[in-house]
Structure formats: structure tokens, C-alpha cells
Amino acid sequence: MTASCTALAILLFALLAMCVRCTGGVKNYTIKPRVVLPEDYVKEIRPPSRKGQPVSVEFSIYVVDINSINVEDMDFRVDMFVRQKWTESRLDMPNALFEEGDDYVTLPPEFVDNLWQPDPYILNAKVSEIAKLTHEFSSVTLFRNKTVRYAARMHAIIACQMEFQLYPMDIQVCPMYIESFSYNMQKLRLRWADADPIMLNPELKLLQYNVGQPLQIEETDGYVPEREANFSRLVLYFRFERQIGHHLIQTFAPSSLVVMLSWFSFWIGLDAIPGRVTLLVTSMLTLVTMFTGLKSDIPPVAYVKALDLWMAGCMVFVFAALGEFVVVKVLEVRYQREKSHRGVNLPRLLPMRIQAMEKSPCMSAWDVESGSGGQQSGQQAQTSSAAASRRSSVGSVLRMRGRPLLQTSWRDHTTGREKVLWREIDRHSRTIFPAFFLLFVVFYWPILLLKKS
């Protein structure tokens, strides 16, 4: 009984060992199916081709998402499906490998490790990797005509040399270069697929940019000094056009309103000095604060941007309004000084003129002021001189010497009313400032749009 139990145990152990061996054989067959790869297959050697002809690798890309356009680091992140296709004539493709009605078979991604594969890389990528969850998102598809298609979901951070001369209406053209690392042009040629080489997710939307469609592609070659050879290169151009709507609402419209607000000071009288100064200074500080906050959106650059010109224009108009207030205030003080000076001298001169006219009817008060007295009252020349003096203004009689070059007031010949210089400056500023600002806007936007196009 004991001997039979021992024999049964040995038999069970042998069966278990056979099952483990069979299971291992199935696993090896899944990873490296010899039904496809011949015994003499060497994956380090590229597929055979005509003499002097390179192996052709066909590329197609489906862009899923574009995000994190970073102007500080000058890069952007792109999520995409990349498909490579080439012909491997050394494969054995028995009919039993395909299901009925299919001309292809999909194998697990580990199978690609047993095949020769091209070694493309993104030349200007800071980071590139295949997406993973529990395993890599990739697959290998074999076709009856011995074509191999390798597809993978990739993330890449692409460097882009951005220019901001036209900011915030700039257009950034960012190329992505795909190049073989080891095989030069005589060994390997990269080319875009004939049908739909680049596809863009139709639901793709960016916050501040519009993506130009369709994306431009190019096939070229580049000399790499480090490897001393020419390498085949594929170029994909991403075109990002910044949306102006955000800046119209957040920048251009508020700054224009602040400039218009500074014009209200022309209607405020000079007796309200605190209100007028507060309005102008607050307008200037508002513009400075507004434009200081905008500098955080883009890195500091050494050239002048379009937004800088707008900022400078708005500040110049507000500063000019503040300067206009200083000028009219100085003229108003000078006008009041001259007015008070005339008021002091007139009471002293008028009684002398009245007394002179009572003594001699032929003598005028102007003759008394000139010092002629009664001795020259009969002379015709002095009579005509007095008549001419009568037609002159009171202010010119009082200021015969040291007359200033700029008159603070004058009398209108048509209406006979007195006009004050500082009031006239305020009145004309109400139309001159808006006219010049409108001229600035008319020149700014067409030139900017012309340079953008």
C-alpha cells in the first residue's frame, strides 16, 4: 500500500512538471513566435533592399491634444498617436496566422522587441515618452504583404523659439523635427504617408490660441556635424495664432477708457485743483498698474512689442493732459496777477484824467498822463496823438514798458469780449486730445494687422 502511494505521488509530480513546461512553452511562443520569424533572422540588421536604396519608413500622426503652451520656457506639450510603417521581407506569413477574411494580425507590443525597427526621435523634444497605464499603449500589426505597422500613444514636450514683436497679435510657428538617430540617408529614408499623414482632433480647443489648419508638413534632410552625415528628416509645423478677444476686453478697452477719463479734467475748473489733480494722477497710476500686470504673461524680451507701443501711447496722452493742467494753472496765476495789477493802477489814473478835462475842455486825460500839461493843449499833433491813445486798450497803456511776449488775455475784435488764454487752451484741448488719440488708433491697428498678415 505504501509503495503504491509513493508511485502515485511520483506520477502526479511528473504530470505537474509537464504542465509547467507546457505553460512555459506557450509563453515563449507568445513573446517570440517562430512561426513568423525564421531561424536565421537577425533583428540588428535592417531589411534587405535594392542595391543603393534606403529602407523607406512611412509616418503618420494623429494629434490628440495640445496644451501647456509655456511662453516662459518656450515649449508646448503635444499628445499624439504615432504610426510607423515599413516592409520586412524576411518574415514568414502563413495563412493560418490570419483569421478568415482578414489580411492582418495584431500582436502584443512585446513582439516588436524581436523585430528590426527604425530609431526615429524628435530632434527638438525636451521630453518624449510612450504613454503607460498598466502597460505601454502600443501595438504591432503584420499584414499579408509583409508590412509592419507600429503604433504608439506618445507625450512630447516640444521646444519652440517664439517671437513676440506683434504681441498680443503674435503668431507662433513651432516646428517638430523627426529624424533617424543611427541610420543616415543612404540607409533609411523617412517619408510622410500618402493618405492623411497628419490629422488633428476636431474637438481640440486652446484657451488663448487658434491652431492653424491644416498643419503643414515637409520632407527634408539635415547634416548632423556630430555624426558627420546627412539624415532624413520630417518636419511638422504647428501654427498657433493668439486670440485677441481676451486682450481687447482686459487690456485695450480698459486702457482706452482710462485715457478718455483723463479728458474730463478739461471740463473741471481750476478752482477745483484737488479733484483735477486726483483724476489725472489716478488715471496715470491705473495705467501703470494695468500694464505692469501684463508683463507676467510673457518673458522679458530685449525688443519692443506691439503692446509696449500701445502702453506708451496711452501714458503719453494721460501725461500730456497732466502737463496741460500745469500750463493752464501757471497761465491762470499770471492772469490773476496782471488783473490785480490793473485794478490797483486804474483808481489812481482816472481822477487825474477827470480833473484835467474839467480845466481844459480841449485837453484829454491821456494828455495829462503823457505829461504835456496845458502848455501844449492847442497843438494839433498832440491832439491827434491823444485820440490814437484813446483807441488803445487800458492794459497796453499801463504796460508800455516790459510788455510780455505771451498775452494772458486779449479782447476779441468781433464780439468785443475778453478772452483768457488758459480758458482757450482748456476749450481747445477738449477736441485736440480726442482727435490725436483717434489718429493714434487709426495708425496703430492697420499697421499691426498689416504686419500680422
Question: Care to describe what's here?
Answer:
The protein is an alpha+beta fold and 453 residues long. It has eight helices and 15 strands. It has helices at 2-31, 245-262, 273-294, 306-359, 365-370, 380-391, 394-398, 421-452; strands at 55-70, 75-87, 104-107, 120-122, 125-130, 138-143, 147-159, 171-180, 188-192, 198-200, 209-211, 216-224, 229-242, 409-411, 418-420. Strands 1, 2, 3, 5, 6, 7, 9 and 10 form an eight-stranded mixed β-sheet that branches. Strands 4, 8, 11, 12 and 13 form a five-stranded antiparallel β-sheet that branches. Strands 14-15 form a two-stranded antiparallel ribbon. Strand 14 and strand 15 form a beta hairpin. It is rod-shaped and about 135 Å long. Pfam families: Neur_chan_LBD (PF02931), Neur_chan_memb (PF02932). Keywords: Cell membrane, Ion channel, Ion transport, Membrane, Receptor, Signal, Transmembrane, Transmembrane helix, Transport. Belongs to the ligand-gated ion channel (TC 1.A.9) family.
